[in-house]
Amino acid sequence: MNIRVILLFFIVSAATASTKLFVLGTGTPNPNPERMGSSYLVLANDEPYLFDFGTGVIRRIAAFSPSWGGDYKALEVENIKHAFLTHIHSDHTLGLADLIITPWIMGRSDPLKIYGPKGAKNMHTNIIEAYQPDIDYRIYGTQPQNNTGYNVIFTELKDRFIFEDKNIKITAFLNDHGDLQESYGFFIETADKKILISGDTAKSKNLISYGKDLDYLIHEIYSQKGFNNKTPDWQKYHKAHHTGPKDVAEIANLLKPKNLILSHILFWGSSEQEILDEVKTFYSGTVIVAEDGMVFD
Ligand SMILES: [Zn+2]
Ligand SMILES: [Zn+2]
């Protein structure tokens, strides 16, 4: 290798080493047209890793791909081969049929690998069964189509499950989503970034134990003002399943992430500024109210 080749090698390595975080869906079960169902994507060494797949997930990924005017060739939807699921709630999984079928139609031939909690397996097997006539039509009709890329290889998560390849290390941990036992967050490590996705959770000790030296802490939140207007039975439910601004601030004060990203926001009539102010009352670090389509690197 001459010096120019070596230099070029390092420049290319540096360019591909930069991890990117794509915010695809920041919504909740409420059908806000500007906020799709929960979904994030981490691009590490140009390999995409998807976290949750709420409504709109494939359209949101496609928007970043050159086929639809975006800048990221790696985000052509047929490249989506790894998906991690926090829990089976509909706002995190309604895009599953789209995730199985559309990238396959667009050319994916590898099976989709899904890492999810107990119960998620039923979802993909039943979706494939429901779509079998459509799948058969595409494979056995006149449409040239591979007969492999709609398949799913499922791995069941447990606390401290680790996925690791040459690009990324992902640790699943149980969080505290009220009476839903099978609910996880993800701690993601790449060559240059540490990212934690809270999943849906009340204040979680397990989450806190994974949160050192984070570049990005993506945490769910509800509006305190909205919470105060709820009836006592709804307050009890939400306090056990989700996190209020004071608790989010407390977690951030403990973990001191470089960036706190608020997402999966239960606004209940509050504005983004009000949510931000509620957190800022107790926390002075960098806070970002997530919006669909944001990219962080
Ligand atoms: Zn949710
Ligand atoms: Zn949930």
Compact summary:
The chain is of the alpha/beta class and 297 residues long. Helix content is 32%, strand content 23%.
**Could you name the CATH homologous superfamily?**
Ribonuclease Z/Hydroxyacylglutathione hydrolase-like
* CA-based shape: globular
Strand arrangement, largest sheet? 6-5-4-3-2-1-14
Name the helix and strand elements from N-terminus to C-terminus, one letter apiece. HEEEHEHHEHHEEEEEHEHHHEHEE
Helix proportion range: 25-40%
Q: Could you give the distance between the termini?
A: 31 Å
- What's the multimeric state? single chain
Q: Radius of gyration, rounded?
A: 20 Å
State the CATH class: Alpha Beta
In CATH, the topology is named: Metallo-beta-lactamase, Chain A
Low-confidence stretches: 5-15
Largest sheet: 7 strands, mixed
- Global structural class: alpha/beta
Number of domains: 1
